[in-house]
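User: Before I run my own analysis I want an independent prediction to cross-check against. Here's the chain; please return only the structure tokens and, at the end, one sentence I can use as a sanity check.
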Amino acid sequence: MSTEWLDELSALLGAAHVLMDATERRFYAQDVYREGPLPLAVIRPGTTDELVGALRAIARAGLAVVPRGGGMSYTDGYLPKHERCVTVDLLRMDRVVEVNAEDNYVTVECGATWRSLFEALAPHGVRTPYWGPLSGQKSTVGGALSQGSMFLGSGRYGVAADSVLGLDVVLVDGTLLRLGSHANGRGEPFFRQYGPDTMSMFLSDTGALGIKTRATLRLVRPQPQSRHLSFQFATSKELFAAIGAVARADVVSECFAFDPGLQGMRMKRARLTEDVKTLGKVIKAAGGGLAGLKEGAKLVMAGRGFLDEQQFSLHLSLDGRDAADADAKAALARAAVAAHGAREVENSVPKVMRANPFADVTSMLGPGGERWVPVHGIAAFSRAAALFDSCERVFARYAADMQRLDIDHGYLIAGVGTTGILIEPVLYWPEARLAFHERVLPADYLAKLPTFPANPAATEAVGRIRVALADNFTEQGAASFQLGKFYPYQRGLEPTAAAFLDRLKALVDPQGRMNPGSLGLGN
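Assistant: Structure tokens:
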């Protein structure tokens, strides 16, 4: 095929930002879980104008486009479906455009990471309501808005999309759309609901409809006093009842839990007290001085032996306007769980998480170097226990294969605002690392872990279990984030909703060139 489009891209972006090397293309063809076809090239635009020009050149060549943010996907979200595509790396588009603390909004380019945004806002005494996933050291604003995301701040403020006021999106042909508050051509981007909310169609689209370049997010003032609580439960039913009770009390900022399986995995990691940096952050988060030293001493004394590995653990972080407010919220949380078999334990886990929210993304490998991949669904409070039991039935069907192939599993569980509970089965198995892991994870961390030879039998079994879990979530009516090209999204839609999405895709991407296969759309 003609390479005229490559010459045009190199002239527009600079040759250094048009990657053709096979090693680079292989890296961009991998996510946390697996590898797809190699793209023809990878481009790294630095501005919206560069992106618009690049997409027009790619359109003239008739090639597909695959957008990529921080790369933390595990659902083929940015893996090419075929080789006739160009991957667009957005990480150079990372500027914080405007911080307006008076009117409570920030405008930021979508290649910015959540950690860099948080750090840019801190001197102004503000942050976004949802302020990032635990992978926020690398995960980008645009990635979270495309894939859907929850964690930091989600107990009170919900998911990433709930914080968005305005959005710029570039379509596959280079058309620039300004949506939400950005559609107001004469006003400031402070108010989202200005006519029909067309912006929502591009949120959680997994990059199937367009490339997000600039977002405006709401701002809040962080409450200065924090409290952290941890509890254990003998049964999953008690745990889910307690999470629902805490959500209805409406007092927590983060609410997450582990089943005995994942709890055991996490406890195998390096001890909290062995990391001097983590200890220092806990002391600083507690305000330093005598109070900080006391918190550090508690952490050292507690170690990790306080958790019964046969029980479920629940971890809460709460924030208050002052000490009295924070203490009152903690009392409400304790009262909410008290009727559900709770046993309060040392609060080291949420304390360390909050003190070091954007840690290295080391959890993408197990504590023994095992490969890792999650699946998840979100259920209403009244349905969470039944959804968990249905996942356990899936694992029971594959128990013999899991035992034979040394495949382990556990669950991360989290409250999603006052709306529901996320249940995330996690699979671990012995398998060789990908080039993705070698580049993304810290070298000193990787050096401590054993390695495994290629293990296609176990990986094939993990793939079957993973598909069975995703099918189960769909059949149970659960919702999911990070749909990518993995979840059977179309099958779970009401028919008229699926038909409308098809028409929308045809309107903005008539040739199916934008991230083909994402959401089950495109060629």
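Sanity check: The chain has four domains: 4-91, 96-218, 225-355, 362-475.
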